[in-house]
Amino acid sequence: MEVILLERVEKLGQMGDVVSVKPGFARNYLLPQKKALRATEANKTAFDEQKAQLEAENLKRKSEAEGVAAKMDDLKVTMIRQAGEAGQLYGSVNARDIANGVTDAGFTVSRSQISLASPIKTLGLFPVAVALHPEVAIDVTVNVARSEEEATIQAETGVALISKDEEEEAPEAVPAAEEIFEEDVLAEQAAEDEAEEATEEAQAEEAAEEEETKEEAS
What we know:
Elements: E1 2-5, E2 18-20, H1 23-30, E3 36-38, H2 41-71, E4 76-80, E5 88-93, H3 95-104, E6 114-115, E7 120-122, E8 124-133, E9 136-145, H4 148-157, H5 173-217
Parallel strand pairs: 4-9
Antiparallel strand pairs: 1-2, 1-3, 5-7, 6-8, 8-9
């Protein structure tokens, strides 16, 4: 499917580019998120007529995002999690957790703005990119620790508080219980993420259908 990009989309192109994408990606993401239009002749004409206005609005949003990025400079977000002596979390920190942490710090962002290849599963300090605009991103430091006190020490030293001795004196049943606990937490988080993604997909499909109906009506 060919679409006209209404803003810069990473790995696809810049505003105004006509690109070919998979139909599902267009219907479930680009179109409902207002990042693109179907590349029909009518839409191409409409885009050309509104291009100057769209570019001006994009510059304004970019400028605002740059202002927010300046305020977020050196922002650290603390995530308190249970972990073993070796630093392995009994669970994980995902994009939604980080988005909530950044929002709690006074900067409203969504999970989709967090660039996290995979959940964080160990204690430590992690730079995570937050996209404030298609052309503006800033790194936020995610401080994963067992307690606020340990988070403060990690922030000051820049080093995760992990025991050098990974051998524990506890009986074998204890690690087994920890593994079960971790599996339960991961399973619960996976179920929550799956439910949320299903809701988002349903909303995206509904928005895409409405878009198609409007186009057919016009």
